[in-house]
DNA sequence: TTAAGATAATCAAACGTTTGTTTGATTATC
DNA sequence: GATAATCAAACAAACGTTTGATTATCTTAA
């Protein structure tokens, strides 16, 4: 489906409001007011409120998919470099598109209420992401740089889960690390840096060869 | 605040519906129908829908707090045993109270819309949890069993985030591990076992002394 | 123990808003 | 002159909440 400029603007406003208040708590009148359009325009362009959020997922899923393909073309680097690049890229991606990410988290919490279209888009995207990560790990395993037993789905879940958790408990994070008085940009930078170093360490510890790895193989 | 049997039943029904559909998408008529009461009873007992969810958080926060205190009394064990016990206990706790946990996740996503009462209860609970974890780690560090540099808040965030992520993407998890045809109980058992072994490994790798730890100290 | 009186619980019905959506006329663009 | 975009207004349905009457439960004094 192709969307014109006006439709994309409506989608963008809806995304921001859905992220902040949730789908049900956001009225079409909220959206039309923020987007400076008439209430009837949402139905006119998308058909219904449900179709609007479907369009949102359609557009953003396509963008993320394209970005994933890009990442997969970063060859000529060592497996460990590629792992670090993938971790950094994923953290950057989520922080850049926090609103959409927030909407995804909300929708994931109601698997039943969700339209099949959204479910399929999300599952597809997550699987694509997992395959990319697996291919990098397997490469390192073939070269004998990584240990033979790596639970990639769980590592990926840990990565995403941690970033999500941090994002949805921002103020708690700032309290714990005593950075409440920093600007919002500085707080985010703190979180991003912390996440990147944290996961560089975790991935290193979880995929580097174990002492007995050469013996058992 | 004390609540009678009827109130606790309403809270329990509301909890289940809030978890499944979200606060805004759940109407008082939904709740009263499921709880087999008159619509006016919610206002009669709690005052309003907002006060109802506050009561829910009040009750559950108290329960969780009490359970945390219990956990802290498990002395006479080695620090590593206590870490494992804490990880297992936390995973069990979340899986047991999935509904409430789901509601917490939803509320965390709208920090602005939330009433201060809920925010404070959640922050308090999270801090209490963090302090418990820190005390165990510090004990291990004093004994020289754990490395000196452990980022406890990040480890805790990773633990919670991963469990959350897994719970909110259950069907994706089952697809990845090919256990869609198992019963729901078996699927949950699979997830719990996987989580526990995963985090035993992560914690081990992240807190055991590094090779150069004795040199730098 | 019982009758009377007070308090608590329950109910159907109605309240005024807000909801998503549609209509039909008007304006802009091609 | 046709198609697309925009608008104020209206629509029925659903919302949280209140009302006022009715029933159940408890309290208290004879």
Automatic annotation (TrEMBL), chains A, B:
Annotated region of DNA binding: 27-46
Residue ranges of every copy of the HTH tetR-type domain listed in the record: 4-64
GO molecular function annotation: DNA-binding transcription factor activity; transcription cis-regulatory region binding
Keyword line: DNA-binding, Transcription, Transcription regulation
Recorded superkingdom: Bacteria
Pfam families assigned to the protein according to its UniProt record, in alphabetical order: TetR_C_4, TetR_N
InterPro entries, per database record: Homeodomain-like_sf (IPR009057), HTH-type_TetR-like_transc_reg (IPR050109), HTH_TetR (IPR001647), Tet_transcr_reg_TetR-rel_C_sf (IPR036271), Tscrpt_reg_YsiA_C (IPR013570)
Database matches in PANTHER family: HTH-TYPE TRANSCRIPTIONAL REGULATOR BETI (PTHR30055:SF234), HTH-TYPE TRANSCRIPTIONAL REGULATOR RUTR (PTHR30055)
Protein name in the entry: TetR/AcrR family transcriptional regulator
Lineage: Bacteria, Pseudomonadati, Bacteroidota, Cytophagia, Cytophagales
């Amino acid at each position: 489906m192709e969307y014109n400029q006006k439709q994309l603007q409506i989608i963008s406003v809806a995304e921001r409001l859905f992220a902040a208040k949730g789908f049900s708590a956001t009225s079409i009148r909220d959206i039309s007011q923020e987007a400076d359009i008439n209430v009837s325009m949402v139905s006119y362009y998308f058909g219904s409120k449900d179709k609007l959020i479907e369009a949102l997922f359609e557009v953003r899923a396509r963008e993320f998919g394209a970005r994933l393909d890009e990442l997969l073309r970063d060859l000529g680097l060592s497996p460990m470099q590629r792992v670090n690049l993938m971790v950094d890229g994923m953290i950057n991606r989520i922080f850049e598109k926090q609103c959409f990410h927030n909407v995804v988290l909300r929708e994931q919490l109601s698997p039943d209420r969700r339209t099949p279209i959204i479910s399929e888009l999300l599952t597809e995207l997550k699987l694509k992401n997992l395959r990319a990560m697996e291919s990098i790990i397997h490469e390192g395993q073939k070269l004998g740089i990584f240990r033979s037993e790596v639970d990639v789905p769980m590592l990926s879940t840990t990565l995403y889960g941690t970033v999500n958790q941090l994002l949805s408990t921002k103020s708690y994070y700032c309290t714990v690390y005593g950075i409440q008085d920093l600007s919002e940009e500085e707080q985010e930078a703190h979180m991003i840096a912390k996440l990147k170093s944290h996961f560089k360490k975790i991935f290193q510890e979880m995929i580097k060869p174990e002492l007995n790895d050469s013996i058992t193989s």
